[in-house]
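From the shared-data thread, chain only:
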Amino acid sequence: MNPIETYFELKKEAQETDPGRLLCTYLAYLRALYNIHQQSHWLCQSHGAHLMFDRIYNEKQTMVDEMAEKIIGVFGKEPIDLKHQASVIQQIMDKYSGEDHFENSLEAEKGFQELSNKVYGVLKKSGDITMGLDDMIMAQFSMSEEAVYLIKQAKY
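Structure, as tokens:
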């Protein structure tokens, strides 16, 4: 690896452990989930699934707002980087834009859970987590588990 590649690799690793950057990524993922579930809501053919996705995407909208306010309250405005969010949202939308909207929503939620685990671990290890932030991440993870359960029930 040449020095330039090494620099960018180290910079990437630093971003992946920077609490503010990770929380910005987390926020962007929540925003993408909202869009993915709203798309699934629009594409549903059964009334029950339509209502389920309505509930899930509305929960995500609330989670987005709460998390953004929490990030600003704990870390200030710096982490709320719109360009970074747009980039993350685009990557997530590209990854979960297949033909099967149930599968898109289900896999996107599972990806969110993986990210949540990572963000929580980094914040805990660095000592940058507050009790309120800890509680919020845990509550949002729990809601994600419920969404996974509901989507699986509706799909299968």
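Residues 20 and 76 are 9 Å apart (CA to CA).
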